[in-house]
């Protein structure tokens, strides 16, 4: 049995004093949206593809794509 599965996933739920103040640091976004996809790609770049250098490349490409779409009045999917 994995000792971390309970402590990581249920850490907030098991606390007795779960209040709005305690949860105010958590943020959310809709699944399969633009922010969600960017978060997945960024975390993958940071932890699996080489750290800050690979994250910087992902961010650069993302911003370049946004600039292109803005300048050409194209919709941003997601």
From TrEMBL:
Q: Which GO terms describe its molecular function?
A: GTPase activator activity
Specify the superkingdom. Eukaryota
InterPro entries associated with the record: Rab3GAP1
Q: What is this protein called?
A: Rab3 GTPase-activating protein catalytic subunit-like
Question: Lineage of the native species?
Answer: Eukaryota, Metazoa, Ecdysozoa, Arthropoda, Hexapoda
């Amino acid at each position: 049995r994995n000792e971390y599965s309970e402590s990581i996933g249920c850490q907030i739920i098991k606390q007795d004093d779960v209040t709005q103040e305690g949860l105010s640091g958590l943020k959310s976004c809709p699944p399969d949206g633009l922010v969600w996809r960017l978060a997945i790609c960024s975390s993958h770049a940071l932890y699996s593809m080489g750290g800050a250098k690979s994250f910087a490349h992902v961010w650069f490409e993302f911003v370049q794509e946004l600039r292109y779409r803005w300048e050409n009045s194209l919709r941003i999917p997601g």
